[in-house]
């Protein structure tokens, strides 16, 4: 990029940024927003970027811009430490002048993008359009809240159970468009309804990791009461439920506004999977050890009822009545090659469907981990139920409500979880044994792409993501 072009581009960006906050007069004494700094800017200091150390590694020892060291066993700064970090940062902001004269912005920015000549910690941002740098620039420009995104897109996120990353797929092209890194042994994944962030459970650190959709970086790690498995979010985005896979059993309840673990709810058995019903009235948690389905009332966050099944509870999904309330729970069980149907109102099993052998397909019985069938999803129109078989490498498709098998699709070795695009046209399934994610045309019931991802892809989800 030529120097003159760089200056014009930066100037245009800053003009747009300043117009976004017309009420802010950049007087030297103007106070920059502390809450925005704490919740949006500070996470950047903890982010791991390829080829760079985290900002906190050097700046806890700096005699200039000083970042407080995290307290022992803590994953984020206390409010008192955040205030100290804020006071240190504002010394490097010239709020009364062109914001690009602020060393806070120019020091970590590449020279060819308008940054200063040298930063002992390296250059973290190679463009003034880098989403992390823009978050910092918005703060310098007077931001008090996140900018409204100009574009929100549907994305498929495939967590890689034996890796330290999750793969982001564009369903419009079936291309990999990003990676969420720095989460070792990612388990469950779900997106915030508005597209601002993604929640991934971190088995290695026993935390719920909140990922900023714009940057694909972890912005906050929330400590949990034990090792997590699956995760679910309410339709209003206010609460996240985390399955804790440790006896005697609990579900952690996360308040999104405060980004804190507000309750550990005791339940019957270590929880493998937790889901929120389509109407968000209940969170449904299943235990392998006690063979129990625990139904939690989301208004009171107390257990409403339990149901003991014949064997351990594996993946679940739901269909609904005309009014949107839950009609049935479809549940896969330990050691059973198929699924059971639980009437939600009757609170009892009413049917059980076993998957037949696939002619000409060799049965795979190694590495099933007690779950010959381990993936369920109801189509967005409520007309079909899809169930994966690790034994026969297929997904079985049943019509609803009559539960008649209407098709099968080969989806690789050890297929796991299933997710639909919102329009119901495509289905995505992680093939854990092949390290790929299958894209399936739902109407034609045929695979249309095998997308290389990471190691042992299992849980997969459809999310909305803000792109800027």
Task: Report the portion of residues in β strands.
Answer: 35-45%
Mean pLDDT: 92
- Briefly note the CATH topology name of the largest domain: Methylamine Dehydrogenase, Chain H
Total E-strand runs: 28
For the record, what is the CATH homologous superfamily label of the largest domain? YVTN repeat-like/Quinoprotein amine dehydrogenase
Give an overview of the whole structure:
This protein has 2 domains: 3-140, no CATH class; 152-466, YVTN repeat-like/Quinoprotein amine dehydrogenase (Methylamine Dehydrogenase, Chain H, 7 Propeller). It is 13% helix and 39% strand. The protein contains 6 helices and 28 strands. The chain has helices spanning 3-19, 34-46, 55-59, 79-89, 103-106, 131-140, and strands at 152-160, 165-170, 175-181, 186-191, 197-202, 207-212, 218-223, 228-233, 239-244, 250-255, 260-266, 271-276, 282-287, 292-297, 302-308, 313-320, 326-333, 338-343, 348-354, 376-378, 384-389, 394-399, 405-410, 415-420, 426-431, 436-441, 446-452, 457-466. The strands form 7 sheets. It has a 4-stranded antiparallel β-sheet with strand order 3-2-1-28, with no helix packed on it. Strand 18 and strand 19 form a beta hairpin.
């Amino acid at each position: 990029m030529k120097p003159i072009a760089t200056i014009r581009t930066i100037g245009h960006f800053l003009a747009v940024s300043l117009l976004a906050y017309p009420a802010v007069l950049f007087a030297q004494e103007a106070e920059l927003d502390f809450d925005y700094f704490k919740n949006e800017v500070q996470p950047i200091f903890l982010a791991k970027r390829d080829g760079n150390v985290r900002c906190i590694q050097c700046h806890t020892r700096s005699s200039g811009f000083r970042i407080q060291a995290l307290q022992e066993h803590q994953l984020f700064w206390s409010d008192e430490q955040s205030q100290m970090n804020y006071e240190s940062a504002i010394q490097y902001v010239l709020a009364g002048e062109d914001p690009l004269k602020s060393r806070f912005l120019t020091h970590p920015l590449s020279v060819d993008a308008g940054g200063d000549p040298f930063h002992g910690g390296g250059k973290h941002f190679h463009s003034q359009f880098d989403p992390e740098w823009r978050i910092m620039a918005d703060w310098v420009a007077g931001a008090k809240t996140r900018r409204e995104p100009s574009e929100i897109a549907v994305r498929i996120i495939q967590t890689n159970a034996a890796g330290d990353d999750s793969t982001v797929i564009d369903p419009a092209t079936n291309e990999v468009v990003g990676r969420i890194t720095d989460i070792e042994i990612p388990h469950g994944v779900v997106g915030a309804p508005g597209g601002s962030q993604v929640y991934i459970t971190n088995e290695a650190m026993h935390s719920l990791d909140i990922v900023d959709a714009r940057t694909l970086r972890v912005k906050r790690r929330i400590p949990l009461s034990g090792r997590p498995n699956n995760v679910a979010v309410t339709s209003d985005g206010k609460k996240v439920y985390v399955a804790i896979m440790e006896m005697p059993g609990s579900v952690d309840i996360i308040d999104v506004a405060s980004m804190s673990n507000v309750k550990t709810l005791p339940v019957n058995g270590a929880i493998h999977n937790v889901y929120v019903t389509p109407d968000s009235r209940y969170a449904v948690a299943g235990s392998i050890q006690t063979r129990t389905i625990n139904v939690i009332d989301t208004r009171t966050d107390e257990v409403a009822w339990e149901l003991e099944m014949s064997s351990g509870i594996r993946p679940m999904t739901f269909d609904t009545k005309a009014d949107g309330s839950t009609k049935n729970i479809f549940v896969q069980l330990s050691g059973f090659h198929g699924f059971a149907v639980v009437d939600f109102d009757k609170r009892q099993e009413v049917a059980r469907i076993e998957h037949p052998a696939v002619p000409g397909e060799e049965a795979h019985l190694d590495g099933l981990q007690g779950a010959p069938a381990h993936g369920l999803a109801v189509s967005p129109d409520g007309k079909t139920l899809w169930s994966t078989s690790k034994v026969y490498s297929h997904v079985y498709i049943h019509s609803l409500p009559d539960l008649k098998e209407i098709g099968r699709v080969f989806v690789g070795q050890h297929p796991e979880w299933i997710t639909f695009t919102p329009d119901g046209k495509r289905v995505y399934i992680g093939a854990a044994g092949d390290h790929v994610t299958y894209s399936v045309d739902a109407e034609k019931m045929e695979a249309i792409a095998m997308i290389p991802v990471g190691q042992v892809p299992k849980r997969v989800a459809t999310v909305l993501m803000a792109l800027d």
